[in-house]
Structure formats: structure tokens, C-alpha cells
Backbone:
């Protein structure tokens, strides 16, 4: 295994990277194309970017995406942290089945999760309609009788598929934690609430932050589950892109891709450089 | 006592799971066995018989895509694990980068490449490939029909899901204990035997997790087949999507299809994991 990499292996790795990146670069190049064509080059332009920033539908979709992602990530992280601590302190007899249920949204095909939530929301809306009708009649209230799929249902769906990932990233940190720490804190006079905030949370903080980031990226990227739970009035960026690719050919899609690609590239480079620097600093410390 | 108190922290989430995970899944089961009027029926499952073609096509294409991903991903993971740490860091970043770009955009990128008047066909024309073929076979070929074929759908699946195969396999192989391989060599094993008896069995958890992560999204996709198959290569995902969002609104039939798909996938995965002695899941990243 520890032989030097051969020419063949380098070549194959190179070809895989070519396969992964060539389409993306073509996409980026044609975002600057002065024509609607996706294969003939007709000169350089920034028109598509200009159009993009004036396209109200895209801007709305971007806003929806960010709002859902931030809200879902934050709520899922808080809920997931409590849930993970709860599961960790549970008897194994209870924990095992609950963790299995927790894993369902991760192992299930996305379309099944999306469709199941869609069915659930619609059925709930029907029940709610009857209930609201009865309440309004009996008590003279003005409850809305007709509810629709929209931002709220999409947010619930996102929270639901995010929490398992948060739990998954926090669990290992809980297992690494010294079990006596909480007892020690309480012996030294902490209430269990203080022990929680001052001991447990700082110990598992890297897991929490990691979970928050995973949840956020999962939400930003999600298409399938949003597609089934957002209804027709709300759309996130992925849904808008799907509609655009299905309907008409517009280099605006290329411009969106380019902007997203550059954003992700910059973020990844920053994260990697920081990690590399930290590792080097740690290595230096070990030497001295 | 104290332990039980902390366990209660999970109570809200347990309730949440019951409402938003368990009940919705149960609703799929209930809908699958209901008629439009609400009574019990098995008719939805009988109607699935009409769509047998879609079932076999979905599983066939997903199987081919998974096999190609494995054939490409396994060697590349091995090669990468041999490189220096800096090379590995950059390579991993480069493999993860496309994953962070929405898969619809990645699929869209291939649309423009595969079109009849797309870049690939223009390239073939420019190098005189069509003239050559027409000259030899006397045909009248102007372009290769690539988009809206099953091949295009498989290509889209491989392109989108290849990183899901490479990452888990790589993360297992890179942690492999080299001393085991050296020991095997010292005991007289040749390269093929080392691979068959040591490397492969030890990397099996990564392989199994990679297969799951490619196969499940591939078999249930509807966007890739819609964009690259042009709606002509209907897959299970498209069938389900049509019953919920399309003109053929029929959530009962859609639920039945989703349920059967879910069960077949679960059976496949269980058998496969049994086969791999159900070892610990290799967690991604």
C-alpha cells in the first residue's frame, strides 16, 4: 500500500477530477456568454448577472432559502442538543429504538420523507378546517379555516430532517466527555442547571457548532423535501432553479451556479487553511 | 435519579419525531391501502403491476450507476490514500466542493454538454469524427443522440453521486493499519492476495456505506431523469412525483409506489449488510 503512486494512478485520479470539474467550468464560462446559446460562444458579457440581480423571483427565492436555512439550523441545533443529551442519559433499552427512529429521515429516500410529510400536512389541514369551522361557529372566533402548504410547513420539514444530523454530530462528543465532570460540578455546589450550562455545553461545543453547520448546508442545498412541502406559493432557490431548467433555457442559471460555486469555494478554502494552520500550530506545540 | 432527569431533555424531540416522522410514514402505509373514497383496498398495489417497467428500469439504472461509482471510486480512494498529506487535503476538498453545489445545477451542466447541438457533439464534429464514421459506414450521422437516453440518466447519477462513494471508502482506507498489509506480505502473500484477504475485507464497511449512499438517492431520483431523460425515461421518483404534484394526482397510488420502493430498498440493504456481517456503519467524513 505504501508504494509510491504510479503514473497510472495519477492519471486515473486526474481523469476523475476532469470528469467532476469540466462540466462545472463549461457552466461558468457560458455564464459570461453574450448569447442564449449553451454551446456557441458569442463574446463576453455580464448581462446575465445584471438580469439575475434584478430578477425578483430569484431574489425572493434566495431570501426564502436563507431564512429557512438559518431558522431551521438554529432551531434544529437547540432541539438536537437537548435531544442528544437526553438520549445519552437514557437507558439503553429506550435509547436503541429511539435512535432507530431518529435515523429514519437520514436513511430513507428523500422523496419518501417529502411525500410522507406532504400527506401529513394535507391531512392535518383537513382536520384543522373542520375544527376551526366548529370553533368559529361555537365561539364566534375568526380562526382561518383553510391552511396552505408554504413557508411554515417547509420550515417544519427542514427542522425534522436536520435534527438527526445534529444529534449524530453531538453524540460522539458526549461519549468522549468524562462522566464524573457533572457529578463533580454538582458536588462543588452547582445546581444541575448550572452543571448543564457550565460543564456539559462547553464540553460538547465543537459538536454543536459542527451540527449547526451541517444543518445549515443541508437546508441550503435541499430540493426534494422542500419541493413536496413548500406548496406552490413558496419556493427556495433549488425549487426556482428546477423550474428554470424545466421551462426555458436561460444563462441566468449559469450565473447563479457561478456565484454559488465561488461562494462555496471561498468558504472551503478558508476552512481548510484555518484547519491546516491550527494543525501546524498544534504540531509545533507538541515539539516544544 | 439524576440520570432520568437528564433523559427527559429528549422528551420534546421524541414527541416531535412521533408527529413528524412516525405518523407521516404510517400515513403512507394507510394511503397505500386506501381507495380515493377512503375505504380499504388492494387496488393500488394491483395497479403497480402496470408500472413494472418503471420499477425494473429504476432498479436497473440505479444498479448500473452504483456499480460504475464503485468501479471508479474504489481505485481512486486507494490511490488518494497513498498520496502525501497535503495532496490528500486538497484532493478531498476538490471532491467535496461539487457536492456543495446544488445537484440540479450539476445536472443542468450536463444538459448543455449532451444536447444534439451541444458542446460534446460540436467537439466530435470539429475533430471530424462524424465524417470518419460516415465515410466508413456510409451512414448519414450528424450527431450522437446522448440526451434523453438511459445512458444520460446513468451518467447524471454517476456524476452526482460519485463523491458519496469515494468519501466513505477513502475514510476507511486511509485509516487502515499498514502493519497488517506488511505482515501479510512478510507471510508470503502477493499483491492480489493482500488485496483479497486484507485490504478488501477491511474496507468493506466503507464500501457498503458508499453503496447505500449512492443506490438510495439514485433509485428514487426524479430530477435527474427529468432533466437528462427528458421525461422519456420515467423512473420511480417521477412516478411518485406525478401522483403528488403532477396532472395525474393520485396520492393513494403514489403512496403504494413509495411504500413498495421503500420495502425493496430496505430488503436490499438488509441482505447486503448481512452479507458484510453487519459491521459498524462507517460514518461519512
Residues:
Amino acid at each position: 500500500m505504501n508504494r509510491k503512486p504510479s503514473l497510472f494512478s495519477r492519471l486515473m485520479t486526474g481523469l476523475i477530477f476532469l470528469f467532476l470539474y469540466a462540466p462545472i467550468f463549461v457552466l461558468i464560462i457560458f455564464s459570461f456568454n453574450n448569447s442564449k446559446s449553451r454551446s456557441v460562444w458569442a463574446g463576453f458579457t455580464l448581462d446575465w448577472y445584471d438580469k439575475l440581480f434584478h430578477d425578483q423571483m430569484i431574489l425572493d427565492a434566495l431570501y426564502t432559502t436563507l431564512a429557512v436555512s438559518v431558522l431551521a439550523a438554529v432551531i434544529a441545533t437547540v432541539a438536537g442538543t437537548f435531544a442528544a443529551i437526553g438520549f445519552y442519559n437514557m437507558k439503553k433499552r429506550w435509547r436503541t429504538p429511539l435512535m432507530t427512529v431518529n435515523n429514519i429521515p437520514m436513511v430513507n429516500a428523500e422523496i419518501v420523507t417529502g411525500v410522507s410529510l406532504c400527506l401529513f400536512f394535507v391531512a392535518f389541514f383537513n382536520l384543522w378546517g373542520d375544527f376551526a369551522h366548529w370553533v368559529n361557529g361555537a365561539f364566534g372566533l375568526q380562526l382561518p379555516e383553510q391552511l396552505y402548504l408554504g413557508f411554515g410547513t417547509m420550515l417544519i420539514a427542514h427542522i425534522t430532517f436536520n435534527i438527526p444530523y445534529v444529534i449524530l454530530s453531538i453524540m460522539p462528543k458526549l461519549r468522549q466527555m468524562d462522566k464524573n465532570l457533572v457529578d463533580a460540578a454538582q458536588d462543588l455546589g452547582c445546581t444541575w442547571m448550572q452543571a448543564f450550562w457550565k460543564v456539559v455545553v462547553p464540553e460538547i461545543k465543537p459538536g454543536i457548532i459542527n451540527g449547526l453547520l451541517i444543518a445549515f448546508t443541508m437546508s441550503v442545498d435541499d430540493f426534494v423535501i422542500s419541493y413536496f412541502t413548500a406548496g406552490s406559493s413558496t419556493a427556495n432557490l433549488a425549487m426556482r432553479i428546477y423550474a428554470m431548467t424545466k421551462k426555458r433555457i436561460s444563462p441566468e442559471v449559469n450565473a447563479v451556479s457561478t456565484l454559488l460555486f465561488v461562494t462555496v469555494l471561498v468558504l472551503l478554502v478558508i476552512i481548510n487553511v484555518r484547519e491546516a494552520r491550527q494543525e501546524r500550530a498544534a504540531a509545533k506545540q507538541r515539539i516544544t | 435519579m439524576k440520570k432520568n432527569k437528564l433523559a427527559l431533555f429528549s422528551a420534546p424531540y421524541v414527541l416531535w419525531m412521533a408527529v413528524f416522522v412516525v405518523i407521516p410514514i404510517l400515513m403512507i402505509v394507510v394511503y397505500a391501502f386506501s381507495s380515493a373514497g377512503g375505504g380499504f383496498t388492494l387496488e393500488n398495489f394491483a395497479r403497480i403491476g402496470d408500472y413494472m417497467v418503471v420499477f425494473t428500469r429504476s432498479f436497473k439504472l440505479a444498479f448500473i450507476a452504483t456499480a460504475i461509482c464503485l468501479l471508479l471510486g474504489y481505485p481512486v480512494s486507494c490511490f488518494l490514500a497513498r498520496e502525501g498529506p497535503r495532496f490528500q487535503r486538497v484532493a478531498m476538498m476538490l471532491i467535496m466542493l461539487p457536492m456543495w453545489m446544488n445537484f440540479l445545477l450539476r445536472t443542468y451542466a450536463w444538459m448543455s454538454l449532451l444536447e444534439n447541438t451541444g458542446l460534446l457533439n460540436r467537439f466530435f464534429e470539429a475533430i471530424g469524427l462524424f465524417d470518419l464514421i460516415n465515410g466508413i459506414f456510409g451512414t448519414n450521422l450528424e450527431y450522437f443522440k446522448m440526451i434523453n437516453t438511459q445512458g444520460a440518466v446513468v451518467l447524471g447519477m454517476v456524476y452526482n453521486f460519485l463523491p458519496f462513494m469515494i468519501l466513505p471508502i477513502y475514510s476507511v482506507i486511509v485509516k487502515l493499519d499498514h502493519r497488517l498489509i506488511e505482515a501479510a506480505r512478510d507471510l508470503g502473500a502477493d499483491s492480489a492476495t493482500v488485496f483479497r484477504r486484507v485490504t478488501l475485507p477491511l474496507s468493506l464497511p466503507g464500501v457498503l456505506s458508499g453503496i447505500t449512499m449512492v443506490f438510495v438517492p439514485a433509485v428514487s431520483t426524479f430530477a435527474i431523469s427529468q432533466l437528462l431523460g427528458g421525461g422519456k425515461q420515467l423512473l420511480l421518483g417521477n412516478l411518485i412525483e406525478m401522483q403528488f404534484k403532477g396532472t395525474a394526482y393520485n396520492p393513494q397510488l403514489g403512496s403504494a409506489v413509495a411504500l413498495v420502493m421503500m420495502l425493496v430498498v430496505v430488503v436490499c440493504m438488509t441482505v447486503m449488510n448481512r452479507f458484510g456481517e453487519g459491521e459498524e456503519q462507517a460514518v461519512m467524513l
In short: The radius of gyration of chain A is 25 Å.
